[in-house]
Automatic annotation (TrEMBL):
GO cellular component, one term: spliceosomal complex
Compositional bias of kind Polar residues: 114-126
SMART domains from the UniProt entry: CactinC_cactus
Compositionally biased region (Low complexity): 1-10, 64-77, 420-442
PROSITE patterns cross-referenced by the UniProt entry: CHCH
PANTHER family: POLYGLUTAMINE BINDING PROTEIN 1/MARVEL MEMBRANE-ASSOCIATING DOMAIN CONTAINING 3, SPLICING FACTOR CACTIN
Region feature Disordered, mapped onto this chain: 1-21, 58-78, 96-126, 414-486
Domain Splicing factor cactin central: from-to ranges: 199-396
Residue stretches making up the Splicing factor Cactin C-terminal domain: 551-674
Similarity section: Belongs to the CACTIN family.
Gene Ontology biological process terms in this record: mRNA cis splicing, via spliceosome
UniProt name for this protein: Splicing factor Cactin
One Pfam family cited in the UniProt record for this chain: CactinC_cactus
């Protein structure tokens, strides 16, 4: 181990515990302590303390050897310096320990601030840094600042800067949380707004559906009338039309109305199930009339609905009993005697006002005190019923008068027809015969119009059927089959008549044919005794009169069959990419069309079917018309008015092969421009 001078700062040489040379160890210890007494670290202080202990031990051993007469190996002056050197070591160690304590305290403070402000610790932080709370020194930055002459922050300034940085991080984090909360609130408001819009759309859809269903109420009545499946509301609908518009504007052939003199009697005879169904339909008719602005018609249906609901409530076990006294103990005939004989709604309203006055002034003294309060209350409750009954019965009477006039006019027509038939038969058989002597068969066999009129008369005034009896007879399987066969035969005959009319139109001569026939007819043959006569007799073999051909349907004018498709999709241009996404896509647009039209029976197969565009009255559309020639008629489609892409690589195809015209095309993409 070599000795070192006091001016240098040699590193401490290793110490061998077996051999403790005195002078070199002491020299090294003293040189080390003198070189850096103030810049010692904790490890240096510990090592110096160990060296000091070794030196003291060696000093004791040397001292013992001196007492035994041995010669000392080192000067005693170095040993004398050991206490002062040890004091400097202790002071350095204490200063280092205090700085360590301060650093540990600052680290603890930083850790507490980070944990309190940000919630970060060495064990738990989003950066995965186990030394997050320790001080980080950016040495390169310090070197650059030192080279640039910038004084680095130290002490309290550095701590203030660190605290400011921490506050800035806290503020940034707070702003981020506020922004996240704001985005969440906006998303919630957006979802609520979309939900409200969907609810509004759903309510609008329900309202439109209900309005459409109400508007179809009159159409349903018309369909039931045409199919002879009338219900109560259908008969009342016909009565309303007859009473308000007359028979001239009556749109139906059947004038059958209710047979009873009072509508309330008919309503009372219906079962509860039919009354409930009629109430729903009558309510639709009332709302439909109000939507169309027909107040009188709506009031009529309101009165009918009130009567039907009263009868339904009376016949339903769960409903209240129909009693004019409202449970006050007054008999029905008492109110009927007061209000039943009144035939005017105005008089009824006057009676209602008078009853209200009597009920109001019952305590004022005078004649009003002698009136039965229960009877007045019951009568007031029944006034709307009698007003509704008067309104409905008035329409019923007016309709019956119209029907009676129709029946009377039909009777007059029948008498005239009978007289004409009788006169013609008497003129042919016996001139002295009178219409009364004419037998009945001559009347029915003369013309079918009498049967039609009499049948119509029977339809107007049907014979009532007693309850418990049925005019229907069971139909056997043979009768059903024969009826179906007869129906098929009539349908076939109807189509045969159409075919014959089509053939007759096809046999009409054109102008050129007529000219040629006229020239041939006027041509004279001057060949002596040879003459020419018309020869237009056709030979029809037995069985050929009703002969048909397989190609008749093949060349009948008709529309071609087709199956077409329209291509729609999203156009993800720059604008749509900016304002839409996959969850909320942009509106779909038409991308192209595929037309496939069949022409298998073209007469002239050499002529290719053509297509051309025409102007459309609707903005943004055009008419695409296809023409092929006989026997096919032209067909046209309304498509979007956009520029076609005729490039085959883009899917354009216009081919006619094997009797099929294929026209496939796509539209050019719209380039988005700012």
């Amino acid at each position: 181990m070599g000795a070192s001078s006091s001016s240098s700062s040699p590193s401490l040489p290793p110490i061998d515990n077996q051999e403790l040379p005195c002078q070199p160890e002491m020299d090294a210890f003293v040189a080390c302590v003198k070189s850096k007494p103030q810049g010692l670290r904790a490890t240096d202080c510990e090592e110096l303390r160990d060296r000091y202990k070794l030196c003291m031990q060696e000093h004791k051993e040397n001292k013992g050897s001196n007492s035994s007469g041995e010669k000392s190996s080192g000067p005693s002056s170095l040993v004398a310096e050991l206490p002062s050197l040890w004091s400097s070591v202790i002071m350095s160690s204490s200063s280092v320990s205090s700085s360590h304590r301060r650093e540990a305290k600052r680290a603890k403070t930083r850790e507490t601030e980070l944990s309190t402000s940000l919630g970060y610790t060495n064990e738990s932080n989003p950066f995965g840094d186990s030394n997050l709370t320790s001080t980080f020194r950016w040495k390169k930055k310090e070197q650059f600042q030192e080279a640039a002459g910038v004084r680095p922050l130290k002490g309290s300034e550095a701590r203030e800067q660190a605290r400011a940085n921490l506050n800035e991080v806290v503020q940034i984090r707070q702003r981020r949380e506020e922004r996240a909360a704001e985005v969440s609130l906006l998303e919630q408001q957006r979802s609520e707004r979309e939900r409200d819009m969907m609810e509004d759309e759903y309510r609008d859809w329900l309202a439109k559906e209900e309005k459409f269903d109400i508007s179809q109420a009159a159409l349903r009545c018309s369909l039931r009338i045409k199919t002879n499946t009338e219900h109560l509301e259908d008969y009342l609908y016909k009565e309303l039309l007859l009473a308000t518009k007359g028979v001239e504007k009556f749109p139906y052939d059947d004038c059958t109305i209710l047979e009873s003199s009072l509508v309330t009697d008919t309503i009372a005879s219906l079962p509860p199930g039919e009354l409930e169904s009629s109430a729903a339909h009558i309510g639709d008719l009332e709302r439909a009339a109000r939507d169309r602005g027909k107040g009188e018609e709506a009031d009529y249906w309101h009165c009918v609905l009130a009567l039907v609901k009263e009868q339904l409530a009376a016949k339903t076990e769960a409903g209240p009993k129909l009693a004019p006294t409202s449970g006050l103990g007054i008999e029905d005939n008492s109110v009927e005697a007061l209000l039943g004989g009144i035939e005017s709604a105005e008089v009824l309203r006057g009676v209602e006002d008078e009853l209200k006055w009597l009920l109001t002034n019952k305590d004022s003294g005078g004649p009003a005190d002698e009136v039965d309060e229960e009877f007045i209350t019951a009568a007031l409750e029944k006034v709307p019923h009698y007003i509704s009954r008067l309104r409905v019965d008035d329409i019923h009477r007016r309709a019956r008068k119209v029907v009676e006039k129709v029946v009377q006019s039909m009777d007059n027509d029948e008498v005239e027809v009978v007289e004409d038939a009788a006169n013609s038969s008497s003129a042919a058989a016996a001139p002295a015969a009178t219409p009364e002597d004419t037998p009945a068969p001559s009347v029915t066999s003369d013309s079918g119009s009498v049967e039609g009129r009499t049948s119509r008369r029977r339809a107007v005034s049907p014979v009532p059927i007693e309850r418990g009896t049925s005019a229907l007879e069971p139909i056997t399987e043979e009768a059903s089959r024969s009826e179906m066969a007869e129906t098929r035969r009539k349908i076939v005959e109807q189509w045969d008549r159409k075919d014959r009319s089509a053939k007759a139109e096809a046999n009409l001569l054109t102008a050129a044919e007529k000219r040629l026939l006229a020239e041939e007819r006027n041509r004279k043959v001057d060949d002596g005794d040879v003459t020419e006569e018309m020869f237009n007799e056709l030979y029809v073999a037995p069985g050929e009169a009703g002969k048909t051909y397989a190609w008749e349907d093949k060349y009948r004018p008709r529309k071609p069959k087709f199956y077409n498709k329209v291509k729609t999709g999203f156009d993800w241009n720059k604008y749509n990419q900016t304002h839409y996404d996959k969850e909320t896509p942009p509106p779909k647009k038409v991308m192209g069309y595929r037309f496939n039209i069949l022409y298998p029976d073209l007469i002239d197969m050499r002529k290719t079917p053509q297509y051309h565009q025409e102007a459309s009255p609707t903005p943004g559309t055009i008419i695409l018309r296809f023409s092929a020639g006989p026997p096919y008629e032209d067909i046209a489609f309304k498509i979007s008015n956009k520029e076609w892409d005729y490039d085959r690589r883009s899917g354009f195809k216009a081919v006619f092969e094997r009797g099929m015209l294929q026209l496939h095309f796509n539209f050019k993409r719209d380039r988005y421009r700012r």
